[in-house]
Design a protein that fits this description.
This protein is of the alpha/beta class. Among the domains are: 172 residues, FAD/NAD(P)-binding domain; 66 residues, no CATH class. The chain is built from 15 helices and 21 strands. The strands form six sheets. A seven-stranded mixed sheet has the order 5-4-16-17-18-13-19. It has a five-stranded parallel sheet with strand order 7-2-1-11-21, with helices on one face. A hairpin with a 2-residue loop joins strand 8 and strand 9. The longest helix has 19 residues.
């Protein structure tokens, strides 16, 4: 089947944000669509936890709406969902004392001037080593490295300097916050939309191979089920692509994903009987939003302005890889010990009021193998290779293929799914 042939029946592999968005667009354009999802739920790396566990639909995966997020916000309006704006005070414990916000980073202005002057891409660690070597820049290098590892879940020795520059320059575009009701509400809406337009969703359908079959393709699942269609769109995370056998042209395309960075995140959610941190050592932390520290689990946040007595810990990037073999209980203990260090308390004190806990290590998820993607200097070329199908029967989409500044976000996944569907439909017109 050539790229220009008329395609009427599609398989979408993966029911995450990208897969559901692709399927919804194809289905409402009148195409026959079946979604094959390996898990027993939709959402992928969007993972709402049961309300009874934390008192609200806590997020085990994606949680925040970042920046402009035009596709996300448009879909929220469709679904009648509102943004709960981020509020409260950000505190830092990096100086050894709790202080509002981070202290200024020396030479930060000089760093951004040098960043704007970069013409040829290189890893951010190499940029720092060549432009900001020497002991006087130690704090600057540590601050940038922490951001790259902690926020982008990226390896500084692989992360693209130009992509980070684009991300940092766009970071303040639009209000940041959470979806009231959580990302699960957005996934539920997309799932309903898919079914409304006739798409079938098959859960527990872990695809192990896609073969040519007649004039189209056949997807073979681990349980022996076979689904046939004219074409397939793979929306799975990059590490999962190598676990699905593909025809040679598509396999060669999928190999380009090795040039796309992919990092891990460990989230630790702790529910307490009270917000014991709100009045600590005479300091009023009742409106605490984010807490940044040098503890093992360095980043924490609350649900402010909501009153839930929950702290969420965030541990990302290469450091998360080094503890990925720990059990969930060990990760929870690591989180409690980090809080004890930050607040100068005995670990027993942080454990005493604990009523619920959960550690989500995305590296151990068999259908994710990590949390989200980031750009390396080779990523844009890899994305171009994967977005241009070698045949007309197998396509790729997902947050890893998004070319904008918000790679690694739900917005990236939704936008990539939307683009994939539009490219397919345009080829047919």
């Amino acid at each position: 089947m050539t790229a220009g042939a008329h395609l009427t029946h599609f398989l979408v592999i993966g029911a995450g944000a990208a897969g559901l968005m692709t399927a919804r667009e194809l289905a409402r354009a009148g195409r026959r669509v079946a979604i094959l999802e390996a898990r027993d739920r939709c959402g992928g790396r969007i993972y709402p936890l049961p309300i009874w566990e934390f008192g609200y639909p806590a997020e085990g995966g994606a949680e925040f709406v970042h920046g402009a997020a035009t596709v996300t916000r448009s879909l929220m309006r469709e679904a009648g969902l509102r943004l709960q704006r981020r509020a409260g005070t950000r505190w830092s414990a990096r100086t050894g004392a709790l202080l509002p916000d981070d202290p200024p980073v020396p030479y930060e202005d000089r760093f951004y001037r040098a960043l704007l002057a970069v013409k040829h891409d290189l890893p951010i660690a190499e940029f720092l080593e060549t432009q900001f070597s020497g002991p006087r820049y130690d704090r600057l290098r540590r601050a940038i490295t922490r951001t790259v590892e902690g926020y982008d879940a990226a390896d500084p020795h692989r992360a693209s300097t130009l992509a980070l520059r684009d991300e940092w320059m766009a970071r303040d575009d639009g209000e940041h916050g959470r979806i009231a009701g959580g990302y699960g509400a957005l996934i539920a809406y997309l799932g309903t939309e898919c079914r409304k337009h006739g798409a079938a969703i098959h859960l527990g359908a872990a695809v192990s191979a896609i073969d040519k079959a007649g004039g189209g393709i056949a997807a073979r699942c681990r349980d022996g089920a076979v689904f046939e269609a004219d074409a397939a769109i793979l929306t799975v995370p990059p590490p999962i692509l190598s676990e699905i056998a593909l025809p040679r042209p598509a396999r060669e395309q999928a190999a380009a994903a090795a040039d796309i960075g992919y990092g891990n995140v460990i989230k630790i959610l702790l529910r307490f009987t009270t917000k014991w941190w709100a009045d600590h050592g005479g300091r009023d932390l009742a409106d605490l939003s984010f807490l940044i520290s040098d503890a093992t689990v360095p980043t924490w946040w609350t649900q402010h302005p909501a009153s839930h007595s929950v702290l969420t810990g965030w541990f990302a990037g290469p450091k998360a890889d080094r503890v990925s073999s720990l059990t969930d209980d060990e990760l929870v203990e690591m989180g409690l010990a980090s809080l004890a260090e930050i607040f100068d308390l005995a670990t027993d004190r942080t454990r005493r009021d604990l009523v619920a806990s959960r550690a989500i290590n995305w590296a151990k998820d068999p259908f994710a193998r990590g949390a989200y993607s980031y750009a390396t200097p080779q990523t844009r070329r890899a994305q171009s290779t994967m977005r241009n199908p070698a045949s007309g029967a197998i396509f790729f989409a997902g947050e890893a293929l998004y070319g904008g500044p918000d790679m690694g976000t739900v917005e990236a996944a939704l936008a990539s799914g939307l683009e994939a569907a539009r490219v397919i439909l345009t080829k047919e017109s």
